[in-house]
Design goal:
Layout (H helix, E strand, L loop, with lengths): L4 E5 L4 H13 L3 E5 L3 H9 L10 E4 L2 E4 L3 H10 L15 E5 L12
């Protein structure tokens, strides 16, 4: 994919849900990274999306948008040549969930 779409979300985030619905209605395949642990927040902050974490954050290739704003999201997806209406089969889940941060290894008691 030339312009991969990544959606960064947080728990109990209504704008994040609106963003998911927006991408689903357009049939845009995307990766969702859920920011919920302290390690996730550190990994998210390392991406330098802004001074304080705000959600959702949408990236389309190198373009990024903090917060959900349908018109801007449409413009970003249009620029990347994603279709305006879903071309995916019904019930197709276009979302892939990935951890925001690498899982922490348990301390080794043998050390």
């Amino acid at each position: 994919v030339k312009y991969p779409v990544v959606l960064y979300t947080a728990p109990d985030c209504e704008p994040c849900e609106l963003g998911r619905e927006h991408l689903s209605q357009r049939g845009v395949p995307y990766t969702e990274k859920h920011v919920k642990s302290a390690a996730d927040v550190r990994a998210f902050n390392a991406l330098q999306f802004g001074a304080s974490p705000q959600f959702p954050v949408l990236t389309v290739g190198t373009d990024r948008m903090v917060g959900f704003e349908a018109t801007t999201w449409h413009r970003m997806l249009d620029a990347a040549a994603y279709p305006r209406a879903s071309m995916l089969p019904p019930n197709y889940l276009a979302r892939t969930l990935e951890p925001m941060s690498a899982p922490q290894e348990a301390p080794n008691p043998d050390n």
